Amino acid sequence: MLEKTFEPKAAEPRIYAQWEESGLFAPRAAKPTDGAADAYSIVIPPPNVTGSLHIGHALNNTLQDILARYHRMKGKAVLWLPGTDHAGIATQMVVERKLAAEGNIGRRDMGRDAFIEKVWEWKAESGGTIVRQLRRLGSSCDWSRERFTLDEGLNAAVRKVFVQLHKDGLIYRDKRLVNWDPHFQTAISDLEVEQKEVDGAYWHFAYRLSDGVTYQHPITFDEDGKATEFETRDFIVVATTRPETMLGDTGVAVHPEDERYKGLVGRFVTLPITGRRIPIVADDYADPTKGSGAVKITPAHDFNDFGVGKRAGLEALNVMDAFGRITAADTPDVPAEYEGMDRFAARKAIVARAEEEGWLREIEKTKHMVPHGDRSGVVIEPWMTDQWYVDAKVMAQPALKAVEDGATVFEPKSYEKIYFEWLRNIEPWCISRQLWWGHRIPAWYGPNGEIYVAETEEDAREQALSDYDSEVVLTQDEDVLDTWFSSALWPFSTMGWPEKTEDLERFYPTSDLVTAADIIFFWVARMMMMGIHFMDGEVPFKRVIINGLVRDEKGQKMSKSKGNVIDPLNIIDELGADPLRFTMAILSGTRDIKLSKQRIEGYRNFGTKLWNAARFSQMNEARRVEGFDPATVQQTINRWIRGELTKAERQVSDAIEGGRFDDAAGALYRFIWNVFCDWYLELAKPVFNGADEAAKAETRAMTAWTIDQTLKLLHPVMPYITEELWAELGKEGPARNGLLMGETWPVLPDAFVDASAEAEIGWLVDLIGEIRALRAEMNVPPSAKPPLAFVAPDAATGERIARHRDLILTLGRVSEVAVAEAAPAGAVTFVSGGATVALSLAGIIDLAAERARLEKEIAAFDSDIGHVNKKLGNPNFVSRAAPEVVDEQRAKLAEAEEGKARLQAALKRLESL
Questions:
Q1: Is the terminal CB of the chain with fewer CB neighbours within 10 Å at N or C?
Q2: pLDDT for 372-386, tens place per residue?
Q3: Distance (Å, rounded) from C-alpha 127 to C-alpha 144?
Q4: How far from 529 is each of 45, 258, 769, CA to CA, in Å?
Q5: Bridge pairing between strands 268-270 and 277-282
Q6: Is residue 673 classed exposed, middle or buried when 0-12, 13-18 and 19+ CB atoms within 10 A define those classes?
Q7: Phi/psi at 355 (nearest 5 deg)?
Q8: What is the dihedral of CA 478, 482, 488, 491, to 10 degrees?
Q9: Who contacts 118 (Cβ-Cβ below 8 Å, separation ≥6)?
């Protein structure tokens, strides 16, 4: 007999160990008859080696595991390939902090080789944390194939790709603007930049026009916006939130259609402090409606200005060093007093000087977004520096066409728009990072600055011999590659490329990729570019399934500062992995998943419901029977549940195939809770307790068979409890063949759906449901058993009444089931299955008190409806409130209106008595 409850804390480690020992995580052996459709592959989005399982990982890996387990049970050779990312900047930061905490010298004093050795030591000790945590979630990855983006095989692939792209002219070195982190002394990607709202200001500076030029500037306007009064000015006003960058200004931009400044285009201003003469240029970037309409242009320190500078031919002058300090290295006209000054100290000094000299016209306080390094927390500086780049524009074209032509599809399809938008407006991809931990760039420099790109230093030396008569000292580039570069090769490099391996032949391209929307550009698009380029035009995956973002129950982003973070490991410790997985699946159909611990607890109850149903079946001797054939059952309830199970199997299969995990979980929930537990087992009780031995034996066997099929259907979503039930229930009846994980997915024939049984039991279920709903509406005490009468039923209904009288009495909690020519006095009527049914309530409920209760509750709903309508009718509330707050109010209104309508119907029934 099953224990009273399932204890996940004890069971899950034991079950996971059985799965691993079974070898089922690895793809099954190839068969001579296998074709492309017999393989299913998926690569895990590699989590950072520094990471710990968070709720986003729990969602993403649950969905992947559902797919892997489902296709494995469908008989396919399944490869779910796991691994971790070396996470350059994050890992380097973790190890540097660890060394500092232990009192060690810094990495620069330690030297590169010694530091790298320390990082590998850290990885050996602590780098497997998230992999162990993924196991706790139940992830059925093939751990024997686990990869690391910095392992030797991937290192070889990265070097080969870099060298080949360089040969193809698609990797080159250039001086461009990057996101520069002054703390870590490296360029970082846009994804590593966090925009923070800060208190700041627009400082309005007056730049004096050169050569004695003046112009007429409008100062007053009529109602139509036409200038009516002008003043003569010998200056132009610009505004900036970063005064320190003015030292690098090389132009002022105005809109070409701005009448105020048309006559100044081609003229010059004299830059304060430096005395630099800089031109006024026309460019659409300048917005006539913002500020003065004139914009200072600092090409070397602003991404938009960089574009203006290129279009206008303006010089790009670096006025900061790698630490964010002012430098005159590019600009000798910067006064010596600013040399070496921190950028924020320089800001204060420049503003003070502007005020003192009279060219500060206004300080406009504002809140604005400022980019910060997500790891360092310091303000990011757009900075001109020499870096390595990929010609992403060229590589993006085949990746665009592949999605346009349907070679790769997105689910939901709406995410294709993000993909297209990024790739159609793509900029060169900066792939070098000024770090030590990562794939070192395979480029060597000769004594005269020549660059030799090669897979090995030996190859570079051979190249150098073409420039030198004898061997010379070559110096390898100090930089490493952007982590996303190696991740872009993940689908094929992890399967052994550049070697022609069996895995590549069998499992590439992969079937699905499950990932989040925020890395469609950073990862998905780049994998498409690299995969198509290096795998003979084949896309790396056929379908991209985008999962949503997990938020708290109010729709707010989870953060430690808000205290609203749900830790999946704590949930697994307390409730088990299965409730968390089921919750992730059933809520996965929205872009923003509103999660609360209460929701997860609710789905733990779902698992408990199934466990109790299995115990109930055991108590009633429902055991598996050798040779049992569900096609031969005779009892109506058994033919009915067979059909309901068949429909559930279709719904679950179709939903998983389509990547609609919420629909799959919803279908499972409805079948298990609402159909099997609430109705079938209730309908089976009289049979179990009856005297018809043949019906009893058939129903016991059918119950056991249905539970077995149900466990198979639920297993991909809730693997632990289903595996435990499979083992425990297998102790009786025919011996099991092995683990549930290795079982075949049920594919039930259409003939299992029996229309007559469905109609018969459907009639009974609807009738009992109507009776229960009416009792609830009318506040009938649970202990009361009012009489029920069918009013002039037809012959078919009469036969059904006779067949199911005992069930109607028991499940409807009524004292009698009668047939009458007219509804009895004091009865409330309703229609069920085409028949009029009367439930006599006179003397059972206090009509006056019930009427007063309903009217009071209706009034309460009216009050709620009025209050919410007032909010939603306020344009200020709708426009200013957070979207999730507005949605919450709309949902509250719909709920109140539905509740009111239900009570009004009950009141109307009451008034008819």
A1: N
A2: 998 899 999 999 999
A3: 17
A4: 17, 42, 56
A5: antiparallel
A6: middle
A7: -70, -40
A8: 70
A9: 95, 99, 110
pLDDT band at 554 (very low <50, low <70, confident <90, very high): confident
Residues 6+ away with beta carbon under 8 Å from 583: 595, 599, 600, 603
What proportions of the chain, in percent to the nearest 5, are helix, strand and coil? Answer: 50, 20, 30
Round to whole Å and give the CA distance between 148 and 49: 9
Tokens of 101: 């905490």
Whether 463 shows a pLDDT value over 90: the answer reads: yes
Report H helices in 80-175.
Answer: 88-101, 107-110, 112-126, 129-137, 152-167
577-586 and 719-729 helices cross at what angle (nearest 10)?
A: 120
C-alpha distances out from residue 714 to 141, 447, 587, 648, 701, Å: 19, 66, 16, 11, 20
Beta-strand (E) ranges in 412-471? 429-430, 432-433, 443-445, 451-453
Task: Identify the DSSP state of 89.
Answer: H
| CA–CA dist 686, 691 (Å, integer) | 9
Closest of 379, 378, 420, 383 to residue 403, by C-alpha? 420
Provide the sign of the torsion angle of the four alpha carbons 736, 737, 740, 744, taken in this order.
negative
Task: Tell me how far apart the alpha carbons of residues 105 and 99 are, in angstroms, rounded to a whole number.
Answer: 7
In the chain, the largest separation of any two C-alpha atoms, in whole Å, equals 116
Report DSSP letters for 325-351, one per residue: BB--SS-TTS-GGGTT-BHHHHHHHHH
Per-residue burial over 207-222, b if 16 or more Cβ lie within 10 Å, else e, is bebbeebebebeeeee
Bridge-based pairing of strands 83-84 and 835-840 is: unpaired
**Hey, what are 497's tokens?**
């490329």
For residues 69 and 719, the answer to whether their CB atoms sit within 8 Å is yes
Residue 767 has pLDDT above 70, yes or no: yes
Please, are residues 63 and 547 in contact by the beta-carbon 8 Å criterion?
yes
| Assigned token pair, 529 | 């570019």
Judge contact between 843 and 778, C-beta under 8 A: no
Query: Left, alpha or beta for 212 (phi > 0: left; psi -120 to 50: alpha)?
Result: left
Strand partners, 227: 221
To the nearest whole number, what is the mean pLDDT of the chain? 93
Per-residue pLDDT tens digits for 41-96: 999 999 999 888 899 999 999 999 999 999 999 999 999 999 999 998 889 988 98
Q: Which amino acid is present at 801?
A: I
Phi and psi torsions of 65, nearest 5°: -70, -35
**The pLDDT value given to residue 913:** 67
Segment 800-811, tens digit of pLDDT:
999 999 999 999
List of residues 6+ apart from 42 with CB closer than 8 A: 64, 67, 68, 79, 80, 81, 510, 511, 512, 513, 514
Residues in the chain: 913
* E-state strands within 120-266: 147-148, 171-181, 186-188, 193-209, 215-221, 227-233, 235-240, 251-254
> Binning pLDDT at 50, 70 and 90, where does residue 130 land?
very high
Its pTM stands at 0.86
- How far apart CA 575 and CA 58 sit, in angstroms, is 14
Looking at the DSSP bridge assignments, the partners of residue 453 are 443
Report the C-alpha gap between 878 and 594 in whole angstroms: 21
* Sequence-separated (6 or more) residues with CB below 8 Å from residue 95: 115, 118, 119, 122, 437
Mean per-residue pLDDT for 751-756? 96
* Confidence (pLDDT) at 374: 87
Kindly provide the b/e burial profile for residues 404-432, where b requires at least 16 CB atoms within 10 angstroms of the residue's own CB. Answer: eeebbebbeeebbebbeebbeebeebbbb
Give Cα 33 distance to the centre of its chain: 37
Query: What DSSP string describes 743-790?
Result: SPPP---GGG--HHHHHHHHHHHHHHHHHHHHHHHTT--TT----EEE
Helix (H, G, I), strand (E, B) or coil at 410: strand
Which pLDDT tens digit goes with each residue over 780-823? Answer: 999 999 999 999 999 999 999 999 999 999 999 999 999 999 88
